[in-house]
Amino acid sequence: MDELRERLRTAYEATDYVVDDGPRGRFLIRCGSRSADVDALLDAAGADAWAYVTACNPGSVPLSATENAARMASLAAVVRDRGLVHVAGAGTGGDWPPEPSLLVLGLTEADAVALGRAFGQLAVVVGRRGEPARLAWIDPGTD
User: Fold this and answer.
1) 22 contacts: CB under 8 Å, gap ≥ 6
2) Region class of 57: left (phi > 0), else alpha (psi between -120 and 50), else beta
């Protein structure tokens, strides 16, 4: 792993992936930890897999709030058009401003990677019922 990817891995794994509306209210997803709240949402949606995806700041390069809002509206439209259940949230950590995101239920890792790639992301956070959250790296130009 090169130096940049290692720094990003450290930052991404230290991020709190906040979900705004869970079964018991707001909750966090952390890489390396499982979440009973995510499992409850999966149960309600009849799904086994999930992904936490953003359209903001492609390539971890900051964009304006206006640009990020437009990108998030596009991501939400894609998710809605696919008929997927999703909950809004924001990734927070370090010196980086909160990054609006979506927890998408019923999205396989392969589909999450493809979606992240379409929005210029370097990684997405993925998981399955009962398993810990983890990063899925996105290699440019391959599915």
Assistant:
1) 37, 38, 40, 41, 87
2) left
